[in-house]
Structures are given as C-alpha cells and as structure tokens.
Amino acid sequence: MARDPLSPAAVAMFAWQSGWVFALRSAQLALQPGTAAGSLADMVAEKQRAFADGMMAAGKAAMLGSRPDVVAAAALRPSRRRVAANLRQLKRDGLV
Questions:
Q1: 2: helix, coil or strand?
Q2: DSSP designation for 4
C-alpha cells in the first residue's frame, strides 16, 4: 500500500477492504445465523470504538496544529487497522 494514507490507491484499498469485510460478514450472518449472531454485538461495538478512537486522534492532531491531511490520516487510522484485522480474521476463518 502507498505510504500516504490519503493517496487515491490507499483510499481505494481501504474502501475495497471495508466493502469486502461487510459483504463477507453479511454472508456469514445469513448462512450461519446461530454462529455469527453471537458476535454481531461485538462487530458493532468495534466499529463504534474505532470511530471514537479516530475522533479522539483527529482532535488531538488538530489541537497540535497539524496539517489537515495529518488530521484526516489520524482520524482514519483506527478504522483502517480494524478493517485490516477483520479481513485477516476472515481469512483465518476460511471465508476469504
């Protein structure tokens, strides 16, 4: 992936990974409702945590006077990590 987290390639990769994770988790929930439903609340909570962490990181970067691109990168970093971790987990589970 490109070093610049806001480069078109990096943003496109993040969008692709996010969509792929969402599609696979949705399929898992549809095909294995008993198994996947138990972790549904965890999936929702992790998204909220990533958003809150990103908001705090962006606020900190903004208060430090960082450039807008640095603030945006800080805001996206927790979500990117979470999506990448979800994709790795789906691979380990054999869904990818």
A1: coil
A2: S
Helix and strand element counts for the chain (H, E): 4, 0
Q: Are 74 and 56 in contact, with CB atoms under 8 Å apart? A: no
Least confident stretch, 29-38, 47-56, 59-68, 79-88: 29-38
Separation between Cα atoms, residue 81 and residue 65, nearest integer Å = 24
Q: Is the pLDDT of residue 17 over 90?
A: yes
Its pTM surpasses 0.85: no
Q: Where are the domains of the chain?
A: 8-92
How much is the pLDDT for 35?
A: 74
